[in-house]
Description:
Structural class: alpha/beta
Order of helices and strands: HHHEHEHHEEEHEHEEHEHEHHHHHEHEEH
CATH topology of the domain at 5-290 and 445-517: Amidase signature (AS) enzymes
CATH superfamily of the domain at 5-290 and 445-517: Amidase signature (AS) domain
Distance between the termini: 44 Å
Number of strands: 13
Strand content: 5-15%
Oligomer: single chain
Amino acid sequence: MSVTRREALRRLSALLGLPLVRWPARLDDPLAGTIVEYQAGRARRDWSAAQVTERALERCQAWNGTLHAIDQLSATAMMEARASDTRLRRGELHGPLDGVPVFAKSIYDMERLPTTASSNEWARLFPAAARRDALEVRRMRDAGAIVLGKTAADDFAYHGNGTSSLSGQVHNPYDPTGARTPGGSSAGSAVSVACGIAFAALGTDDGGSNRIPAQFCGIVGMKPTFGLVPRTGVIPTWPYLDSHGPLARSVADAALLLDAIAGPDKSDGLALTTRWRRGILEHLPDNALANARLGLVQAHVPRAQMRAESVAVFDRAVGDLMAAGAIVTESAPTVTRANVRNLFAEAAKARGDVTPDPNSPAATANALLRYFATHGGDARREVERGLAAYRAFYDVLPKEWEEMSRLIVQPYERDAAGQSFARSRETVVAQLAETFRKEQLDAMIYPTMPFPAPRAVDPWPDIRTTLGYGNWLGLPEVSVPTGIGADGMPAGNISFVGLPGSDARILALADSYERLSRRFVAPPTPA
Length: 527
């Protein structure tokens, strides 16, 4: 039964936790705003999910020849959008993501589409469409999101440049010359979000694959607490490092996507088992920065190696935080980028344990077998068929099938090197937690990366980053834009980093900074 406009507004307002008087003003482009602004426009009947989804798909077709950001498009997106519009008319939306256009990365299984991994060889070997969604994709659909399709990435999500052997080099939309890298491996996800094709997208992060393109494309990227998001139905990378999370133009939108995909599932043996209360990230507090104690880790700010502009935009961000009421104090944690690996090794030696190894061949081999097991059929045969293509990137795996066949059956939860790594992580995180306790910190802050996007064909500057630090420790990290440089390119991002389990607090701090600083600037419309 249809409902009145006023009733639709009331119900949608209650759904999003916003009073009617605070609803956003109308936008000319529904894809240029936030999810809340988009949903407000739907409730006012400024546009429908079907209209906006059609516009998003048109942008994919018109712009992808320049961007190379899209792996594949879904044939069911318009049907899903019309179904969401029907739910809205009935007052039966599934939640704030209902009717929202989003993307997933090319290594995610998606029903009715092949999983290419952005690899030309893998796409040739496995051309059949997946028969089920990856867990995160299913959770997005359960929340009512319109999954437009899949985005291009580095082959097997292995590098940080956005270079796919299948679809070519993903282009940075801020660079009209097409020379600068968008970062990777979640390149297409970041680019599609920055350009206003989708509101948010799924990415993965083993050593920066969400945060690198977030900085180079000037958007928000998050690496959640390790294990918060189960990874079933996704081509595996490093099981003891890999964290899946959102990319979005706003922190609040990233929080909405994380809220939908987080929570335990037994299919991922390394996922957290703590119950997740759906909806806890749907509304972030307005004044999270007031009296928040933020530790400025100068050891993670290589000022002498950074460009003057990069230093300036970071220092301006710190000034913005203090102006918002945050207490920024210089922090000297006992665990830093420089010593974290040594601390892991020392902890293992003190236990009399084997050497910790997050890149253990056995763990990755077993994860690959378990990925194919979700497809039905002969998983061992599929691993053997794809081994050479996969091993071209994950070269810790044995070349010979006889040795590989022994590794794949060893459950990654019981891998000695991986478990030693997990035990050392617990020990070293406890040391970092002691710093937080002594300094009474809510979060640490430092540049996500100390340099802007280089040319895609050039090596990166020889400046150490904190990217691996967050993955080794399993810390939640939200990367937020700090501004555009004189050349029109994103100049840098600031990272808000907390102890494991503090995802909601980190998001709230980042959201308050973002709303007060307003440093995001959309890229030019692709030619």
